[in-house]
Each structure stands twice: as structure tokens, then as C-alpha cells.
Structure of Lipoprotein:
Amino acid sequence: MNFNIKNISIMKLKIVGLLLFCVSILNSCYSFTGSSLKDEKTIQINEFPNNAALVNPTLSQQFSTDIQNRFLQRTTLKGTKENPDILVEGEITDYSITPTTISSNTQTTSTGGVVQESQNKLTITVKVHYENKLHPDLSFDRTYSDEAVFNNSLSQSAIETSQVRIVNERIINKIFNDIVANW
């Protein structure tokens, strides 16, 4: 009986050793960072003015701060105001809240009738200019847009604190991935 237990533990050690060897080989062959930023050291992210027809007074500052934080916290790039390797700038071109009927909830009234709750959709669109001075072929001008659907019973302040944050996060993820990720 002891002989079988020793054989099993030796076999397990061999398998674990083989797995560790394979992982170390794979790690040396591929970088898991996936970053396309190799030589770039500095970044300048200018404020994104809100040029939308409907103006949220805090949107420009919130978006600009969030995108700057994303790049400075998740990359090794240093912020600068003079001669950056990377320049990111743009503008908020659309901020709209429109009624929608997508996935509306229903409620039954005390008389047996059905009332359909209305929902709204928040859409934010941002135009981005990305300039890579070390690798100009990677530079681009793109428009990013995203939306969030919410119950129309939310107050304006609740929309601005929760829904705007959700949409901003999604747009910033897209921008960040297009600039940094090399999939």
C-alpha cells in the first residue's frame, strides 16, 4: 500500500514539474502585457471640451480626469506638457438622453391593469485624435460612442453620477485598448 502512495506522489511531482517547465517556456516566448507601447515614455492628454448640444456641466472635467488617470495608472507613461511621445486630445460631440422601449418592465396595478415603465437611453459620443510621434503610422482619428439604458424615474443627479460614469468607463476602455493593447 505504501508503495502505491509513493508512486502516486512521485508521479504528481513529475506532472507539476512538467507544468512549471511548460509555463516558463511559454512565458519566455510571449509577453502577456500585449502593449504596443515600446519606446514611448511620455504622454499628454488634453482636456476634452464638451461641444454637445445638451451640456452636462461636469462631463468634460470628469471624462478628462478619468482618461488621464487610466493612462497614468495602467501604463508606465509619464504625463508631460512639453514635447510628448504621445498626444491624446479630442472633444465630446454628443450627450443625449432619449426615450426608449428596450426591455421595459411592467407592473400590475391594483385594478388588474398593466402599466409599462418607460426607460431612457443615455448616449455619449467622443471624437479622439491620437498622435504617436515615435511611430506616426499608429496615429489615428476616431469617434467612440456608447450608451446606457435606465429607468426614467432616475433623477438628473442620479443619471450624472451613475449612468454617465458607466458610459465614460466603456468609452475610455475602448480608447485605451485601441492605443495600448496590441491584440
